[in-house]
Each structure stands twice: as C-alpha cells, then as structure tokens.
Amino acid sequence: MPVASAKYLILLGACTLCACGFRLAGSDPLPAVMARPYLSLKDPYTDFSREFEHQLKSSGATPQLARAAATATVEVTKDLVEQRTLAVSAKNIPTEYELTYTVTFSVHGGDKELLAPQTISLSRDFSFDETLQLAKEHEADILRRQMARDLVSIAMRRLTSLK
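Above: the chain's sequence. Below: its structure in token form.
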C-alpha cells in the first residue's frame, strides 16, 4: 500500500469520527456558569483539590480568588482519605490495606443551588510487606493520587451536566 493511500485512509477515518460527533472522554465543554468559578476548598493542598483546579483550568475555566467575582461557587465540604486494615498475618502484622477516598461537593450560582451536595467515593486494596515498607508507602501514595484523578473526572462529568 503506497504511503499516500495510508495517509488518505487515516484522514478519511478522522473525518468520519468527527462527523459522527465522537469526542474524547472528558472533553465535554463546561457550561457558561462555570466560566469563572470560585473554589471553596476544605484544604487547597490535597490531591483532589490540586487536580480539580488543574482540570477546571484545562477545561477553559478561570478560577477566581474572590467569591464576588465568580459566576459560580464550587464548595468542597469533604475531602478525606481513610486507610483500614483488611488482613493481618499470624504475627498480627498488617498484610493488606484498603484506601478509601471520599469527596463531597456542591455548586451554587448566584442565589440558587445548581448542583446539590454530591458525595463520591473510591476504594482500592493494596498488599503490605513490612520488609518493603518504603516501596509500599510509595504504592499507597500513587493509589491515592490516581483515586483523586478518578474522582476529579467524575466531578467534572457532573459539572458538564449543569444547565
């Protein structure tokens, strides 16, 4: 197959996808009311808070420093990571943990509630070996950051559904 034919087929495929309305996941535009949101965060330094602000900016929103200048207020009232022991060894040493990341947020625009409080939560299990403690703590950090990204994706999908 000549190179020109391959390029033609790729171009034809791309045009077909665009014509049918295909969009990448997470690429829905934010509604106009979310153009200049004020973020009321419980803690601005958590994984969820930082990723949420980053995703809002990536979606074209301009987070405001003052509530008065905002078109909407996103209030995060809960941003919590919990770890619980799932299994222990015969020596009563933990061998498996569960991480749970829970976030509750709501959206207000002007004097009305645009999105009632939403609680979203994700859980992940991970094994633990005390001889590999540093590596396992790093694994838990990676899991926590990934759960925060997943929670932000869920929250962004809910924000795009606002009218």
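The beta strands are 37-41, 72-88, 94-109, 112-127.
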